């Protein structure tokens, strides 16, 4: 008996505007008997987002947010998702020296003022916890409670996030993916020996 491992991926390419229109149309459909939604993304008191498993916005009411990290737009909600374990933060390290060709030689010179120092950078990244299909949360802000729900879209790496806009949580600030330079504390002898 011969066994074969078959793996494949199937995709479709479409314009973002078409995909966004399909998303907004689908988000307006309700299972209620009368067809009326009790909560709708058309409501000004609610923000709806479609994000991927790394937290990047695919669809938002504000088109300029497309491609932006969700934590930049909704810092309080992203912080809560990380603290609840729905998303995990990890660091990707980048070392400049590892990109240099190691067989290159440099003529040593004496008396120069050049000092070599390590140049490592960490880049924060985020990934969703795939076992969580739906999460509901509340965030205690200064004078109110902000509610949200995040739900995985079946058979995809996408999540729909619905947030109550009636509570301002701007005191939390954004969650960014800005790089972090690693600073080493080395004395002059250690630096010169690198």
Automatic annotation (TrEMBL):
One of its GO terms (cellular component) is voltage-gated calcium channel complex. It comes from the Eukaryota. InterPro entries: Ca_channel_alpha-2/delta (IPR051173), VDCC_a2/dsu (IPR013680). One of its GO terms (molecular function) is voltage-gated calcium channel activity. Residues 9-89 form the Voltage-dependent calcium channel alpha-2/delta subunit conserved region domain. Pfam families: VGCC_alpha2. This is Voltage-dependent calcium channel subunit alpha-2/delta-3.
């Amino acid at each position: 008996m011969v066994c074969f491992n078959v793996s494949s991926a199937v995709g479709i390419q479409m314009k973002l505007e078409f995909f966004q229109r399909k998303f907004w149309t689908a988000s307006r459909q309700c299972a209620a008997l009368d067809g009326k939604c009790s909560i709708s993304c058309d409501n000004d008191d609610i923000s709806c987002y479609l994000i991927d498993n790394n937290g990047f916005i695919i669809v938002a009411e504000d088109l300029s947010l497309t491609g932006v990290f969700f934590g930049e737009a909704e810092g309080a909600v992203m912080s809560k998702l990380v603290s609840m374990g729905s998303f995990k933060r990890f660091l990707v390290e980048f070392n400049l020296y590892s990109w240099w060709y190691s067989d290159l030689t440099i003529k040593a010179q004496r008396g120069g003022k050049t000092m070599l120092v390590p140049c490592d950078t960490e880049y924060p990244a985020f990934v969703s916890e795939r076992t969580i299909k739906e999460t509901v949360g509340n965030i205690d802000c200064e004078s109110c409670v902000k509610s949200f729900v995040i739900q995985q879209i079946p058979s995809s790496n996408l999540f729909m996030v619905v947030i109550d806009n009636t509570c301002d949580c701007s005191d939390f600030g954004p969650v960014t993916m800005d790089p972090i330079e690693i600073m080493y504390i080395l004395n002059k002898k250690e630096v010169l020996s690198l």
